[in-house]
């Protein structure tokens, strides 16, 4: 005797089996949608998670705005003002001499500001790193 074959087009399953299957599928899809929404929400979040990222983000923003201001100053404005006074003032502001940050003339004011910012930020990051290493040795 052969075993009876099952077919997909056979008689419909009972109502309670269909309802349970439907509930399981809906629950699975709802759980998948919740998980996907949570993951997409976490990926879209722009919160800064670490303090050092916050410091570098603020430094980058401040440095970019200062560099943009320096780029907007035309060489003619530096030439008509007292160039020696401008040099002395910028050297005192950045505490950076021509050996470390390069000379200042009428045409490279933005380049000098960029070099000075890089020099100061490099020194700050080096100081933070040294302090962090020292505090780690105190544990």
Query: For the CA atoms, what is the radius of gyration?
Result: 33 Å
End-to-end separation in angstroms reads 81 Å
What percent of the residues sit in helical stretches (DSSP H or I)?
over 70%
Number of strands: 0
The oligomeric state is single chain
Strand composition percent = under 5%
Can you give the mean pLDDT? 78
Write the H/E string, N to C: HHHHHH
Shape: elongated
For the biggest sheet, the summary is: none
Number of structurally distinct domains: 2
- Give the helix/strand class: mainly alpha
Which consecutive residue ranges, at least 5 long each, have pLDDT under 50? none
Task: Output the number of helix runs.
Answer: 6
Provide structural commentary:
With 139 residues, this protein is an all-alpha fold. The protein has 2 domains: 14-45; 51-137. The chain contains 6 helices and no strands. Helix 2 (51-72) packs antiparallel against helix 6 (109-137). The chain starts with 14 loop residues before the first helix and ends with a helix.
Features:
mainly alpha; transmembrane helix; about 75% helix
Summarize the entry for a quick read.
This protein is mainly α and 139 residues long.
